[in-house]
Design goal:
CATH superfamily of the largest domain: NAD(P)-binding Rossmann-like Domain
Order of helices and strands: HHHHEHEHEHEHEEHEHHHHEEHHH
Subcellular location: Mitochondrion outer membrane
GO molecular function: ATP binding; tRNA threonylcarbamoyladenosine dehydratase; ubiquitin-like modifier activating enzyme activity
Oligomer: single chain
Distance between the termini: 89 Å
Number of domains: 2
Helix content: 40-55%
Protein name: THIF-type NAD/FAD binding fold domain-containing protein
Largest sheet: 7 strands, mixed
Function: Catalyzes the ATP-dependent dehydration of threonylcarbamoyladenosine at position 37 (t(6)A37) to form cyclic t(6)A37 (ct(6)A37) in tRNAs that read codons beginning with adenine.
Strand order of the largest sheet: 3-2-1-4-5-7-6
Shape: elongated
Strand content: 5-15%
Main location: mitochondrion
């Protein structure tokens, strides 16, 4: 019989049925009471937490220069005390898990535990680094060290994750810590208002970090940090240039060997190659190409140069003193990508990035062709070995000649060729030996295979001048590439 045909108004004939119904009603009432009590208790805990966190309305007025007129109450003891108590265990684990609930169901308990046990160091806490640090703390990373020597400026506010007008003039690391302690007081946040360099690098990266974030925009410091992490086996991810970028669909994560269309990344990659590091560092970079009407690095105004001592305009003597246009949204995207990579990597969450084209086979082919050319020019030496390794060839192809023929600019069917012919031979057998005038990085140029054949016949064998064969413009281009290589060679 279906429920709609039952007569619920009729007296229950069974005493047993009456007892069952009473028990069910009682159970529902008790369960509802327990749930209501638990909800009320949790709401009370949340109210207590909110009362213990100071309001941002307590920030002080600013001076005419945009700095706090007095020390903000947000920087006083109560927030620090709350954070210290939470790190000592005076915090409800149930509330922590509730705050991290969405991450918990995504990464699962085992993954979230790895995240909470992790120690991440963020070097550079500007637009990119502040967003990375913020999302790492919000996502449950248990211990974070913030390293930056700089202060918040008014121009920082278009891209910094948490800074307000009241923070102008205060160290970026203290601004970040102050804010993040109100978000997750149980996270241990170590703020170091210092410049990372080779001299203090070991100290600032001490403690066996799970991961290091490179959010530095100075090329010298960036290369030193990445080289230190790589040679010391410290996992690191680096942010390339977010300045002058505007297309969020072009932001990528990949190995440093795959990154293109980014001057900062190109220079970083080139200097690391010269230090023996060609692959193995994940980076966040943009594939967006420069073009007419797009932002570019701006020189200082003429009147600034007329004042003299332009180097004093930079934060440090070796730091850039030019104006870098930055759309405020892009550093945030880069920082979020950094944090996302670290969280999924630590938790063991399966990720598969779309990687660039593998060119190892291309380098092997170029090496074999170049060895064949050298053998022919020396009288068909059997088993001739080049001084140039596959890594050297990859460096010349990608960094020196940007993956394009120096003659035509064509990016396909490429090979390297000797640029200048061997000197006239004065040996008895009429040929140079394997060790005579061996090729180096600055002695080869990138051409298409057809162009290289022509160059070998006309220049290397018939000894016509390169300018006679290719023209003045190509020769000047080669000279420019060789001069650039001479500059970068000092970083080897």
């Amino acid at each position: 019989m279906s429920p709609k045909n039952l007569d619920w108004t009729a007296p229950l004939s069974s005493h047993k049925a009456q007892l069952v119904l009473a028990a069910v009603a009682s159970g529902v009432a008790v369960g509802s009471t327990i749930l209501a009590f638990q909800a009320a208790r949790q709401n009370q805990k949340l109210r207590d937490i909110k009362k213990s966190i100071r309001s941002r309305d307590e920030a002080t007025a600013l001076t005419e220069y945009g700095a706090p007129a007095t020390v903000s109450k947000l920087q006083t003891e109560p927030d620090a005390e709350l954070a210290a108590k939470a790190r000592r265990g005076d915090w409800d684990e149930e509330l922590i898990l509730e705050q991290l609930a969405r991450n918990r169901v995504f990464l699962r308990d085992a993954g979230l535990k790895k995240v909470r046990d992790a120690f991440v160091i963020v070097v550079g806490c500007g637009g990119v680094g502040s967003w990375a640090a913020t999302m790492l703390v919000r996502s449950g990373i248990g211990r974070v060290r913030l390293v930056d020597f700089d202060q918040v400026t008014l121009s920082s506010l278009n891209r910094h994750a948490v800074a307000t007008l009241a923070d102008v003039g205060t160290p970026k690391v203290l601004t970040l810590r102050k804010h993040l302690e109100q978000v997750a007081p149980w996270v241990e946040i170590d703020a170091r208002n210092e410049l990372w360099n080779k001299e203090n690098g070991e100290m600032l990266l001490s403690g066996n970090p799970t991961f290091v974030v490179d959010a530095i925009d100075n090329i010298h410091t960036k290369v030193d940090l990445l080289h230190y992490c790589k040679t010391n086996g410290i996992p690191v991810i680096s942010s390339m240039g977010a300045g002058c970028k505007s297309d969020p669909t072009r932001v990528n994560i990949g190995d440093i060997s795959e990154s293109i269309e980014d001057p900062l990344c190109r220079s970083t990659r080139r200097r690391l190659r010269q230090k023996g590091i060609a692959i193995g560092i994940p980076v966040v970079y943009s594939l967006e190409k420069p073009g007419p009407g797009k932002a570019s690095l701006l020189p200082l105004a003429d009147e600034e140069f007329e004042k003299g001592k332009v180097d004093e305009l930079s934060v440090l003597p070796t730091f850039r003193a030019r104006i870098l246009p930055v759309l405020g949204t892009m550093p945030g995207l880069f920082g979020l990508c950094l944090a996302n990579h670290i969280l999924t990597h630590i938790a063991g969450y399966p990720m598969e990035y779309s990687h660039g084209k593998n060119r190892i086979k291309l380098y092997e082919d170029i090496q074999a062709r170049l060895a064949g050319q050298e053998s022919r020019l020396r009288g068909n030496i059997i088993g001739l070995r080049l001084k140039l390794t596959e890594a050297d060839i990859g460096y010349v192809v990608e960094e020196v000649f940007k993956g394009k023929s120096v003659v035509s600019g064509i990016p396909t069917r490429l090979t390297l060729t000797r640029w200048e012919p061997l000197p006239f031979c004065h040996k008895e057998d009429g040929f140079w030996g394997e060790e005579d005038h061996r090729l180096d990085v600055d002695g080869v140029v990138l051409m298409t295979k057809d162009e290289a054949k022509k160059h070998e016949k006309e220049v290397l064998i018939n000894r016509k001048s390169p300018e006679e064969v290719w023209g003045k413009e190509v020769v000047e281009r080669v000279n420019q590439r060789q001069q650039e290589e001479s500059f970068y060679a000092k970083y080897r």
